[in-house]
């Protein structure tokens, strides 16, 4: 909610390996929070990688390079 109040509408979700249950739980929580705020989840803003700093940086660079990046 604080991000939404600041005008952010396109939020990315960077998660771990898709086969790990904790990664699925993270994405599900992200989708629930967006739905509560009346914002549709954009699959382009959901990234799966590894739980490492390097992977997080790669995912962040990828979403920031999108034609419509997160705000």
Describe it for me?
The protein is mostly helical. Helices cover 45% and strands 8% of the residues. It contains three helices and two strands. It has a two-stranded parallel ribbon. Strand 1 (13-15), helix 2 and strand 2 (46-48) form a beta-alpha-beta unit. The longest helix has 16 residues, at 21-36. The mean pLDDT is 93.
Can you give keywords for this protein?
single chain, 71 residues, 3 helices, 45% helix, globular
Strand order in the sheet with the most strands = 1-2
Shape by Cα distribution: globular
Give the mean pLDDT: 93
Class derived from helix and strand content: mainly alpha
Helix-strand pattern? HEHEH
Q: What share of residues are in beta strands?
A: 5-15%
Give me the number of helical elements. 3
- Biggest sheet statistics: 2 strands, parallel
- The helix fraction, in percent, is 40-55%
DSSP E strands, number: 2
Which blocks of ≥5 consecutive residues have pLDDT under 50? none
Measure the end-to-end span. 14 Å
